[in-house]
Amino acid sequence: MKFIIKLHPEMTIKSKSVRQRMSKILSGNIRNTLKPLDETIKVRVDWDKMVVRSNNHDDASRQLLIEALGCIPGIQSFLEVVEFKVSSLDDILEHTQAMFGDKLAGKTFCVRAKRRGKQEFSSLDVERYVGGGINQRCETGGVKLKQPDVQINLELDDDRLYLVSKQHGGMGGYPIATQESVLSLMSGGYDSGVSSYQFIKRGSRVHYCFFNLGGREHEAGVREVVHFLWKKYGASHRVKFISVPFEGVVAEILEKIDKGHMGVVLKRMMMRAGAAVAERLAINALVTGESMGQVSSQTVTNLNVIDRVTDTLILRPLIATDKQDIIDQARAIGTASYAEKMPEYCGVISQKPTIKAVLSKVEEEEANFDFDVLNTAVQASFVEDVRDLGKVWEVPEVEVSEQVTEQEVILDIRAPEEEEQSPLEVDGHQVVHLPFFRLAHQFGELDQNKTYLLYCARGVMSRLQAIHLKEQGFDNVKVYKP
């Protein structure tokens, strides 16, 4: 089994030294990716192509290699080929006819040849001789140079003939590690997955930083999509996954920051933390999935205020991309199915969030913030090898109840302003209000002889918090969905 690898065009226009370096890196990436699938893989680097050989010839192995080659950055396209040793035009004709003759019945065709090395004939000679010979010997529809039914592609390399049986599209882009590493701030949604993919394709080693706002279930989903992205498109290199516990930061924002500025301040805290993690890993840039105008914190004014918090370069590849286009690309690369089931974090709910934040006002609000909370979160961040994310995380089951018994207490965990605007009343049953950002520290102070039904408007935060409490050893929790 053999494949001819065609380089991404942007690689071919580089200087000789740069092209050689990129080709060397790409050949190593191909080996690293394919060797776990097929130990017989050999890769040869030529100036204008690479040749990948395998001693396995079964269809299952072939399909695995095709799928893997199609997801390696730096490959523009690749050809499945059959190799023969030839010494004359007659040899070329015989092998070409044997492979394609039966497929040309009643069909127009043409022959396209590429040549490398020393032969006594030109590429045009090959096309005329082989095309004319096949047309005379086989029941074809005739030679047609423009838009034929079948185009026969063959390549000559000295005395070797490569007949192309099938052509496959590649991923394009630059080989991973030809560009500098980046740290992608991952939420698990459509945007962060697509922006991470774009930097993988552009040749960066993409490390992943996740700010955990919603407990173990949220992190389990993000770990899943990160592992998928790495395994499918970036498996040639080891990268890191960093989880930063941000629930305390959220609680501090909800306690200390003006409601209109919560979103902007949260993003500034994330950029501070991301920059600290990046510095620890010797990475010079952060990547986000932000798109201009998509939410209130992503106006030009607010993004400017957010960026002022760090000197670290913040890259936003989707900044002018429509949401539907982002979703379409997520479907194409395979991350949409993960994004669709990702729980939406409804914790930081701002009433009338500002779309034109003033830097001085934001800094004034942040003066009330206890930055020891942020520093503690960064220090508590957990770094893992991305390969370990393939392990399945066990998430506790949480019972959902529509009815309330006498021994159960409804625990309204909504933010204070939301509870004040729409108080929850259930006839004959006690309703206790304990905001979600105080729940982890104060739940143990409640009467543990009772069962608590956690309530929030969408049912997402209540489920996340119930799981979090169960992981801490509290079994007397359910989710209330009237």
From TrEMBL:
Q: Does the keyword Lyase apply?
A: no
Family stated for the protein in its record: Belongs to the ThiI family.
Q: What is this protein called?
A: tRNA sulfurtransferase
State the encoding gene: thiI
Q: Where is the protein found, in the record's own terms? A: Cytoplasm
One GO cellular component from the entry?
cytosol
User: Which organism encodes this protein?
Assistant: Oceanimonas baumannii
Annotated TM spans: none
> Residues in domain THUMP?
63-167
- Tell me where in this chain the Rhodanese domain is found: 404-481
Catalytic residues identified in the record: 456 (cysteine persulfide intermediate)
* UniProt-listed GO biological process terms: thiamine biosynthetic process; thiamine diphosphate biosynthetic process; thiazole biosynthetic process; tRNA 4-thiouridine biosynthesis
- Locate the residues binding ATP: 185-186, 267, 289, 298
Q: Which domain of life is it from?
A: Bacteria
- PROSITE patterns with a match to the protein in the record: RHODANESE_3, THUMP
Q: What is its main location?
A: cytoplasm
InterPro entries named among the record's database cross-references: Rhodanese-like_dom, Rhodanese-like_dom_sf, Rossmann-like_a/b/a_fold, ThiI_AANH, ThiI_fer, ThiI_N, THII_Thiazole_biosynth_dom, THUMP_dom
Named in its record, the pathway it takes part in is: Cofactor biosynthesis; thiamine diphosphate biosynthesis
State one molecular function term (GO).
tRNA binding
Q: Where is the signal peptide?
A: none
A Pfam cross-reference name: ThiI
What is the role of the protein in this entry? Catalyzes the ATP-dependent transfer of a sulfur to tRNA to produce 4-thiouridine in position 8 of tRNAs, which functions as a near-UV photosensor. Also catalyzes the transfer of sulfur to the sulfur carrier protein ThiS, forming ThiS-thiocarboxylate. This is a step in the synthesis of thiazole, in the thiamine biosynthesis pathway. The sulfur is donated as persulfide by IscS.
The protein's UniProt keywords, in alphabetical order, are: ATP-binding, Cytoplasm, Disulfide bond, Nucleotide-binding, Redox-active center, RNA-binding, Thiamine biosynthesis, Transferase, tRNA-binding
Catalysed transformations (reactions)? [ThiS sulfur-carrier protein]-C-terminal Gly-Gly-AMP + S-sulfanyl-L-cysteinyl-[cysteine desulfurase] + AH2 = [ThiS sulfur-carrier protein]-C-terminal-Gly-aminoethanethioate + L-cysteinyl-[cysteine desulfurase] + A + AMP + 2 H(+); [ThiI sulfur-carrier protein]-S-sulfanyl-L-cysteine + a uridine in tRNA + 2 reduced [2Fe-2S]-[ferredoxin] + ATP + H(+) = [ThiI sulfur-carrier protein]-L-cysteine + a 4-thiouridine in tRNA + 2 oxidized [2Fe-2S]-[ferredoxin] + AMP + diphosphate
Q: What is its EC number?
A: 2.8.1.4
